[in-house]
Amino acid sequence: MTLRMELFVNNLAVSSDFYCRILGFEKTKESERYIAVKSGNAILGLGLLSKLSSNHHLRPKSPYERVGGGVEIVLEIDDIETYYQRIVSEKYPIQEPLQQRSWGLTDFRIIDPDGYYLRITSKNKSSRAELLNGLGKRAQEPVKPVLPES
């Protein structure tokens, strides 16, 4: 399985510039309504929000509704320190600076021009098989219910 995400944006030129110039993606397809960008195995489609039908599920219902709410896009990077310095040198606003997290990874966070939240992180040191095996074991542990006090 491969994951491809499509982000609906207000301005294709601004979003394309962010993902290509700031984050280092390459354009693989471009039309007046859609741009595809790729970096390694990460594939993003950028579509114009204005081209969605008025009743489309992803179209904001009000001007106060945030785009991308409840989603954190995570990009794993081989050399996180160098990548961070690249973003800083572009003077792009950093939401949370580079830091070591309690779970053992180093990351920083930024917000794209349309409000999508990105966590840019070092790669997990353990293998994917170990990670998935650990998740499977944890999922099999019994859940202890929290009972209301009487």
Structural account:
By secondary structure, the protein is α/β, with parallel strands linked by helices. It has two domains: 1-51, 2,3-Dihydroxybiphenyl 1,2-Dioxygenase, domain 1; 69-140, Signal recognition particle alu RNA binding heterodimer, srp9/1 (2-Layer Sandwich). Helices cover 23% and strands 31% of the residues. The chain is built from three helices and eight strands. The chain has helices at residues 12-22, 80-89, 128-140; strands spanning 4-9, 26-30, 34-39, 42-48, 72-77, 96-100, 106-111, 117-122. The strands form two sheets. Strands 1-4-3-2 form a four-stranded mixed beta sheet, with helices on one face. The protein is globular and about 45 Å long. The protein starts with a strand and ends in a 10-residue tail after the last helix.
Number of strands: 8
- Rg, nearest Å: 19 Å
CATH architecture of the largest domain: 2-Layer Sandwich
What is the helical fraction, as a range of percent?
10-25%
Descriptive key words:
single chain, 2,3-Dihydroxybiphenyl 1,2-Dioxygenase, domain 1, four-stranded mixed beta sheet, 23% helix, Signal recognition particle alu RNA binding heterodimer, srp9/1, 150 residues
